[in-house]
Amino acid sequence: MKSPLAVAVLATAVCGPSGTALAQTSLEQVAERLAEQEARLKAQAKEIESLKAELAKVQKVGEVPTPGSSPAASSPAASAAAVPSQTAPDMVPLRIVGAGRAPSSDAATATRNLLVQAGRIETLDGANWDRGSPEFVSKDGNFSFRPRIRMFTDFGATFGSKAKTRNLSGTEQRLFDLGFEGRAGAEFSYLYEAGFGDNRLTVKNAFVAWSRALDSKHILEIAVGNRVTGRTMDGSTSINDIHFMERNVVASSTQPQKGYYGLGVRGRIYGPRWHVAAEVAGNDVNSAGSANDGVTYSIRSHWNPLRTTNSLLHIAAWGYREQISSSLNGVQRNIYIGGHVPDALQVQSGIIVNPRSGYGAGFELGGVFKSFWFSAEGGGRHLSAQTDAEFRAASISAGYFLTGETVAYADKIGIWGRQQVLTPVGRGGWGALELLARYETVTLENGSLGGEGKAATIGANWFLTPNVRLMANYIHWSLDNQSGTVTGADAGDTVAMSMRLTY
Q: What is the pLDDT of residue 465?
C-alpha cells in the first residue's frame, strides 16, 4: 500500500474522528502504526473491495478520474475543485437513502471523504452514515454538519447494607442527549450538546475551536465555550468511551467547584506522542448567573514514552488553582461509590463553610498491550475554608478483550477512544467482549465531618457495534460517613447494568 491515496486512507483511519476534524497527522506518525492497523484493515477488506467496485462503475461513465491520473484526464468538475472556494459553498445536495444500512467501516469512510474533499464526487449513495448518523459535507470538505445522540439506560440493585434506604433496586434514564458537530471552515470546528439527566436539562459541550498546523509535527488549537476540562484520564475521556459504568473516584472527587465543565478559553498544543493543554474557565454554562463566577486555572499534559505497533505507555499529570465565588457560603462533595442507583450510596463530605480558594493535582499512569490495558491514577484537592478540607483518591484498573480487539486509545490527547469492533452484530459477528476489574479508594476530610469509601468492581462490556454497548458491573463497597442520613461504617454489594447508545 504505497500510493498517496492509500497512505491518506490509513492516516484517517489511525487518527479517528476527532483527529480528522482538526488537523492531519504527519505521515511519520502514520508509518509507525501501519502494522498495528493490519488486522483491522484485513477485516474491512471485503467492504473496501465492494466500495472499489462501486467506484469503478462510476469511473466507467467518466464521473470520477482514476486515482493517480493526470489533471488533464480529470473531469472539469474535478479540475475546478482543485482550487479551494473562497466563499462558504453550499452543502452537497444529498439524497438520504442510507437509512437502514449497516454503517460502513472507518476505512470506507476515509475513501469517501477523500473523494468528496478532492471534488471528484459529490456523494456515492446519499449522506455518510459511517458514524451512525448522517453527515453532510460541502463540496470542498471544509463545511460539515452531523447530528449526535447519546442515550444511557441503567439498572441497579444494592443489598447487604445495614440501612434499608440503601438496599434498593431501580432503573434510571441516566442520559438522553442531543447535539450536533461539524466544521465551519478549513480551520474551525464546533460542537454543541444538551440533554436530560438526573431529572434536569443541562447544556454540556458548547464550543467553537480553531486549529492550525504549526509545522509538520505540531498543531495549535484554541477553543472558546463550555467544554470538559482536562483532568485525570477518566475525567478527560468522554463518558461514551470510559470502560466502567462510572468514572473512577479520582475523577469525581478531585474536580474543582465548577465541575467537569466550565465556560472559558482553552489552548492545546499537540506534538508527536504528547500534548499540553491549559485553560481559564468560569462556572459551568448552566449556573444561575446571579452572582460572580469563580475562576479556575488548569493544566494537563500527557506523554507516550513507549509507542510500538502493539503497545504503548501513558504518563500524564494535571493540576489546577481555583478562586471560589464569594457568594458561596457553603459547599459539599458527595461521591458515588457503588453505582448511580441508589442515590443514597455516596461518600459525603458534609458542609464546608465559607470556602474561598482551592487547588488540586494528580498523576496518571497507563498502558496498552494488544488487547490488554491498565490504568493507575491518584490525586487530591485542598479547599481553604473556615475549616480546611482535604480530598484524596486513588484508583487502579485493567481490562482485556477476549475477542482480539486492539484497545482504543487517542494518543493525540492521552485519553481512551471510541472502541472499534472487529465483527459487529448484524454483520456476521458476535461483537466484542471485554472483561475488566477496578479497585478504588477515596477520603473526604472536613474537620469532624467527612467520610471515606472503598470499592472493588468486576465487570464486562459487550460491544454489539461501535455504537451500542451492554455493560455489567458487580461492586463490593464499604463506606464510613460522619454526616448525612446514614452515619458510621457500612458495607454491601451492588449489581449494575446499562445499555448505552452513542452516535
A: 95
Q: Which three cell numbers stand for residue 337?
A: 461509590
Please check whether residue 183 is in contact with residue 143, taking contact to mean a CB–CB distance below 8 angstroms: yes
**pLDDT for 81 beyond 70:** no
Taking the alpha carbons at both ends of the chain, their separation in whole angstroms is 31
User: For residue 257, what are the CA distances in angstroms to 100, 107, 182, 393?
Assistant: 44, 42, 30, 17
135-175 per-position pLDDT tens digit: 898 888 889 999 999 999 999 999 999 998 899 999 988 89
Q: Which residue has the higher pLDDT, 192 or 200?
A: 192
Residues 154 and 251: their CA atoms lie apart, in Å, by 20
Contacts of 328 (CB under 8 A, 6+ apart): 257, 294, 355
CA-to-CA separations, 83 to 68, 76, 120, 212, in angstroms, rounded = 18, 12, 12, 20
CA distance linking residue 483 with residue 487, whole number of Å: 6
Q: Are 15 and 106 in contact (CB under 8 A)?
A: no
User: pTM of the entire structure?
Assistant: 0.76
CA–CA distance from 210 to each of 92, 181, 183, 298, 399 (Å)? 23, 14, 10, 20, 35
Rounded Cα–Cα distance for residues 380 and 253 (Å): 8
Exposed e or buried b per residue across 113-145, where buried means at least 16 C-beta atoms within 10 angstroms of its C-beta: bbbbbbbbbebbeebbbbbbbbbbbbbbbbbbb
pLDDT digits (tens, 9 = 90+) for 39-55: 566 666 666 676 666 66
Spatial distance between the Cα atoms of 34 and 40, rounded to a whole number of angstroms? 10
Q: What is the largest CA-CA distance in the chain?
A: 81
Whether 21 shows a pLDDT value over 70: the answer reads no
Q: Cis peptide leading into 342, omega within 30 of 0?
A: yes
- DSSP-derived letter for residue 161 is -
* Beta-carbon count within 10 A of 259 CB: 14
Nearest to 498 by CA among 476, 470, 463: 470
Number of Cβ within a 10 Å radius of residue 492 = 19
Please state, in angstroms and as integers, the Cα–Cα distance from residue 231 to each residue in 55, 58, 102, 226, 320, following that order.
45, 49, 36, 15, 9
Helix (H, G, I), strand (E, B) or coil at 23: coil
Helix, strand, coil percentages, rounded to 5, for the chain: 15, 45, 35
Cell numbers linked to 335: 461521591
d(CA 349, CA 367): 33
Query: Which grid cell sits at 298?
Result: 488548569
* Phi, psi of 67, deg, nearest 5: -55, 130
Round to whole Å and give the CA distance between 253 and 456: 17
What percent of the chain stands above pLDDT 70?
A: 75
